[in-house]
C-alpha cells in the first residue's frame, strides 16, 4: 500500500508542488500528480480507499527515521494513551517519548504532533475519496463512501478525545482555506459528524471485512461514541452492542493467547494489518516494548507498572501470563511479541523480524463489545443487578478462568467493570479513554503521579496540547488548550 500516492487536495487541470512539504494539515505525496488523471476507474477509487488504511498503518520508524517526512499512523498511539495512565511507562526519563508518562508533554512534542498530523492525513484522504466517489461503479459508490466515512469518523474520534475541539474538515479544501483548516470546532459538533458518518457506515456495510471497515465495527465505534460524548446515549449504545452480540458473527477465542497470535480471528472486529519482514508494511512498536534484551531501535517503552501487576494478580486469571512477562526487574508487554519470539528462557529472543514486526493492531474486539454492553446497561450508575449486564461481564471473566457460578456477582459495580476492562484490554490503548469515560481519570492519575513522584500532573493534562507547528501555520487562528 505504500506505493499508493495521490493528492489530498484536488487541483483542477494542474500538477503542482508544495513549497512546504512538511505541512501535514495539507499533506502532499512525494511526487505530486493531478488527481483527475488518477481517479478514473473503480479500481483507482478502491486503491485510494486502501491508501486511507495505509495512513492509519503509518511508516515503521526503522524504515524511515525522519518524523518530518513520514507519519507514524497509530504506531505512536501507546505513548499518547497507555503512557499517560497508571498502566505503563518508559524505562528511562530521557527524550520526548518519556515526557508522556511524566505528564511533561508540551506543544512541541514530536510524537504528539505526529499523531495529530497522522489523523488528519486519514481525514483528508477520506475526504478526497468522497470528492471522487462518482468515478466508482454505481454499485460500489455507497459502500466506498461508507468506508471512507468510517475511517474519517475513527480519526476524528481519536482527535476529539485527545485534543478536544479541533478543526472539522469534511470536504476537499484548498491550501489557503485557513478558516476550514484552522478553526477549532466545539467537540459536540465533532461528535455529531462522527455519529452521522458511522450511521452511514452501519447502513451500507456488511461484516465481510475485519481489516477494513464493517457494519459491526461502525456499530461498536458508534456505541463507544455514545458512551463518551458529554450527552451520553446509554440506551442507544446498549442497542448497538446488543445487535452485535445477537448477530452471532463474533465470539471470544477460547484461548486468550489466540486473540493476538491467530490474527483476524472470531473475536476481531477491526484491526490494522501489518506484515512481518516487509519494511513497507511492518510496525516498530513490538520491538520498542522490549527492555531486558534490546530488540528495537528504541526500546524500554510500555514497561508495566507495579499497580497493574497487582491487578493482574488479583483479577487477571489466565490472561496474566499472556499479557506481560518478567525478566529480573523488567516487566514487559507480551501481547505483541514478534514472530519467532521465545520469552521462556533467558535471555529472551525476538525472532528475525523484531524491528519489522507483523503483529496486527487491534482496534475493536468482541471482549470490548461485551464489556461496553455491561457499561451501557450500568448507564453511569455505581452498580447494577441487571442480569444481561452481568452475563456480558461474566462471559469475559469465564474465558479468563473464573467460575461461572461461584465468581458471578449478584451486583456488578462500576469499579469492578473498570478493573475488568483494565486487565482484559491492557496495552491495547483503552485505559486512558476508560478512565476519562468513567469519570475517574483525575482521581486515578493524580494519585498515580504522586505515587511515582511525577510532580507535573494536573487535570489540564488530560488534554494534549495543540501542536505549536499547526498554530504557527495558522498564523494564530488555532488556539491552544489551557495549561500549555
Walk me through the structure.
The structure is a single chain. The chain is mainly α and 484 residues long. Helix content is 43%, strand content 7%. The chain has helices spanning 35-38, 42-57, 77-80, 110-131, 138-163, 178-182, 187-204, 215-228, 234-247, 258-261, 285-288, 306-315, 320-323, 366-378, 387-399, 414-424, 431-437, 441-452, 468-473, and strands at residues 88-89, 166-167, 184-185, 268-272, 303-304, 324-327, 330-333, 341-342, 349-350, 361-365, 383-384, 412-413. A two-stranded antiparallel sheet has the order 1-5. Strands 2-3 form a two-stranded antiparallel sheet. A hairpin with a 2-residue loop joins strand 6 (324-327) and strand 7 (330-333). Helix 2 runs antiparallel to helix 4 (110-131). The longest helix is centred in the N-terminal third of the chain and has 26 residues, at 138-163. The chain is globular and about 60 Å long. Residues 1-36 have low confidence and may be disordered.
Key traits:
single chain, 484 residues, mainly alpha, two-stranded antiparallel sheet, two-stranded antiparallel ribbon, 19 helices, 12 strands, 43% helix, disordered N terminus
Short account of what is shown:
This protein is mostly helical and 484 residues long. 43% of the residues lie in helices and 7% in strands.
Shape: globular
Q: Report Rg.
A: 22 Å
Helix and strand composition category: mainly alpha
How much of the residues is beta strand, in percent? 5-15%
**Topology, number of strands:** 12
Helix content: 40-55%
Alpha-carbon distance between the two ends: 37 Å
Q: How many helices does DSSP assign?
A: 19
> Main beta sheet: strand number and arrangement?
2 strands, antiparallel
Which parts are unreliable, with pLDDT below 50 for 5 consecutive residues or more? 1-36
Amino acid at each position: 500500500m505504500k506505493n499508493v500516492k495521490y493528492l489530498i487536495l484536488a487541483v483542477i487541470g494542474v500538477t503542482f508542488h508544495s513549497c512546504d512539504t512538511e505541512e501535514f494539515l495539507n499533506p502532499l505525496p512525494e511526487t505530486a500528480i493531478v488527481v483527475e488523471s488518477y481517479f478514473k476507474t473503480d479500481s483507482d477509487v478502491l486503491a485510494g480507499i486502501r491508501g486511507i488504511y495505509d495512513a492509519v498503518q503509518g511508516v515503521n520508524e526503522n524504515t524511515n527515521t525522519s518524523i518530518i517526512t513520514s507519519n507514524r499512523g497509530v504506531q505512536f498511539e501507546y505513548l499518547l494513551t497507555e503512557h499517560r495512565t497508571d498502566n505503563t511507562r518508559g524505562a528511562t526519563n530521557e527524550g520526548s517519548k518519556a515526557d508522556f508518562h511524566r505528564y511533561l508533554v508540551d506543544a512541541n512534542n514530536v510524537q504528539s504532533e505526529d499523531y495529530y498530523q497522522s489523523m488528519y492525513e486519514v481525514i483528508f484522504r477520506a475526504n478526497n475519496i468522497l470528492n471522487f466517489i462518482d468515478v466508482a461503479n454505481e454499485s460500489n459508490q455507497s459502500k466506498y463512501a461508507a468506508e471512507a466515512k468510517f475511517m474519517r469518523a475513527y480519526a476524528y474520534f481519536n482527535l476529539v478525545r485527545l485534543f478536544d475541539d479541533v478543526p472539522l474538515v469534511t470536504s476537499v479544501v484548498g491550501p489557503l482555506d485557513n478558516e476550514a483548516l484552522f478553526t477549532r470546532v466545539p467537540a459536540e459538533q465533532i461528535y455529531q459528524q462522527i455519529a452521522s458518518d458511522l450511521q452511514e457506515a452501519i447502513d451500507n456495510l456488511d461484516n465481510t471485512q475485519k481489516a477494513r471497515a464493517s457494519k459491526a465495527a461502525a456499530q461498536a465505534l458508534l456505541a463507544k461514541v455514545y458512551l463518551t460524548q458529554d450527552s451520553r446515549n446509554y440506551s442507544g449504545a446498549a442497542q448497538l452492542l446488543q445487535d452485535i452480540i445477537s448477530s452471532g458473527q463474533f465470539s471470544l477465542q477460547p484461548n486468550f493467547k489466540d486473540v493476538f497470535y491467530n490474527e483476524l480471528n472470531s473475536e476481531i472486529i477491526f484491526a490494522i494489518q501489518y506484515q512481518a519482514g516487509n519494511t513497507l508494511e511492518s510496525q516498530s512498536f513490538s520491538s520498542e516494548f522490549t527492555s531486558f534484551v534490546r530488540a528495537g531501535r528504541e526500546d524500554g517503552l510500555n514497561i508495566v507498572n507495579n499497580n497493574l501487576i497487582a491487578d493482574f494478580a488479583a483479577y487477571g486469571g489466565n490472561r496474566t501470563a499472556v499479557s506481560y512477562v518478567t525478566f529480573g526487574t523488567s516487566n514487559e508487554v507480551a501481547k505483541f511479541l514478534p514472530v519467532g519470539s521465545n520469552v521462556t528462557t533467558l535471555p529472551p529472543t525476538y525472532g528475525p523480524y523484531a524491528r519489522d514486526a507483523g503483529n496486527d493492531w487491534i482496534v475493536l474486539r468482541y471482549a470490548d463489545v461485551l464489556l461496553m454492553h455491561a457499561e451501557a446497561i450500568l448507564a453511569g450508575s455505581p452498580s447494577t443487578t441487571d442480569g444481561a449486564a452481568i452475563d456480558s461481564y461474566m462471559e469475559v471473566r469465564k474465558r479468563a478462568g473464573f467460575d461461572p457460578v461461584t465468581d458471578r456477582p449478584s451486583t456488578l459495580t462500576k469499579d469492578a467493570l473498570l478493573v475488568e476492562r483494565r486487565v482484559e484490554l491492557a496495552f491495547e490503548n483503552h485505559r486512558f479513554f476508560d478512565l476519562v469515560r468513567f469519570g475517574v481519570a483525575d482521581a486515578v492519575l493524580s494519585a498515580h503521579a504522586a505515587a511515582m513522584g511525577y510532580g507535573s500532573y494536573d487535570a489540564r493534562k488530560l488534554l494534549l496540547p495543540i501542536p505549536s507547528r499547526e498554530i504557527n501555520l495558522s498564523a494564530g487562528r488555532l488556539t491552544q488548550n489551557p495549561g500549555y
